[in-house]
Amino acid sequence: MYDVIILGSGPAGLSAAVYASRAGLSFAVIEKDYMGTGQIAYTEQVDNYLGYYGIDGFSLGEKFREHAEALGTEFIEGEVTELSRTDSGWKVALSDGNNFEAKTVIYALGASPKKLGIAGEEEFAGRGVSYCALCDGAFFEGKTVTVIGGGDTALSDALYLSKTAEKVYVVHRRNEFRANASLVKKAEEAANIEFVLEAVPTEIIGAESVTGIKYTRNGTEKTLGTDGVFAAVGSLPNTSLLKGTADLDERGYVMADESCITSAEGLFAAGDVRTKAVRQVITAAADGANAAVSALNCINDKY
Predict the structure, then answer these.
(1) Cα-based distances in Å from 284 to 39, 41, 213
(2) Residue tagged active-site, from 33, 47, 135, 247
(3) Which residues pair with 221 in a beta bridge?
């Protein structure tokens, strides 16, 4: 039995591993993707992680992982299918049939991109509809693409795509952006980025692949010609395993403060799955540290 099992190898999980190691705990990190570092790997440039200005997300994630590996972190590859309480702590079941037990669990499984929920989205998935500009942007070199969303991810995606695409539209349902002002300014200054504001997407159209997107503005339906649609409308927490086990808010995030302590004894939530105001790499790393310290305190108190 481990002292701690950490679910997820993003910044929160890897930070928790570093602190668990320094505390002398027996622990393992369970990750779905081999050599994973979380969603940060799909970020072109990180400008707000202290000490690493301008680094790309993949490189920063690799530095996090190298740090955890240097401290002897054990990684287990597998998809978690069930998390349940036992008399002595917690059991983690994987899809390959393996089971692991621990006194405590740090839940850091992050979030997944939210879908648009409009006609044609599922039909053209992989044929012009994407949720990762860094992954799929190269397929649209010299073409016209449309980014849907108004936050940091949407504007970052637009800037990234503008380097290779001929034209980039940013479609947003409001008349102002939620993104950081510096990102908005950069996008405004890009010659091939055009904003389409107060526009509500209704359908993605095409034949063999995407040829356009329909939207409404002030009750009038319009069509925008495009070769690709990149959805950047937020994320959904990966907390389905916790339903009925720990308290979740109305959006599915785990209810926990900065201590990362949840309503279930011995279970700690870190990173994008937790209720908090700011979801960034730096706050995820802080969560990992807090969760590991809380797990240590729990073990010392109970065992």
Answers:
(1) 11, 14, 35
(2) 135
(3) 216
Q: 260 catalytic, yes or no? A: no
C-alpha–C-alpha distance, residues 177 and 183, integer Å: 10
CATH among 3.55.50.30, 3.10.450.50, 3.50.50.60, 2.40.10.270 for 129-231:
3.50.50.60
Kindly state the helix (H) or strand (E) to which residue 268 belongs, with its residue range: strand 267-269
Q: What is the residue extent of each domain of the chain?
A: 2-113+235-302, 129-231
pLDDT 10s digits, 121-179:
999 998 999 999 988 999 999 999 999 999 999 999 999 999 999 999 999 999 999 99
Averaged pLDDT, 254-262: 98
CA 129/CA 284 separation, integer angstroms? 29
pLDDT in tens, 10-52: 999 999 999 999 999 999 999 998 888 888 888 878 888 999 9
Give the CATH class of 2-113+235-302.
alpha beta
pTM for the model stands at: 0.85
